[in-house]
Specification:
DUF6752 domain-containing protein; DUF6752; 85 residues; coiled coil; 0% strand; 3 helices
Length: 85
């Protein structure tokens, strides 16, 4: 990765004057860091969405037995959910 940056910097210095080339290298590095942060945030969001979907499934499973007044099923589902935590 370091070698790629050096090559990229060398190419940019040939194309862009030195002061602007250095600034461009810094901007590229800044964007790489920002992308890494965004990728971590996306992964966190995926995990939260999965957890929300699981919780929604549990609530849906609970609503049906509650509507039927099936207390045994409700307790079984709650125990199953608590075991997953």
């Amino acid at each position: 990765m370091g070698e790629v940056r050096k090559r990229l910097g060398a190419v940019k210095r040939r194309i862009v004057p030195t002061d602007e080339g250095d600034d461009l290298v810094q901007r590229v590095e800044s964007m790489r860091q920002r992308i890494a942060v965004l990728e971590r945030e996306v992964q966190e969001n995926r995990e939260l969405n999965r957890r929300l979907a699981e919780l929604t499934d549990v609530v849906t499973e609970l609503l049906i037995p509650l509507a039927d007044r099936d207390d045994d099923s409700v307790h079984e589902l709650l125990d199953k959910y608590r075991a997953q935590l």
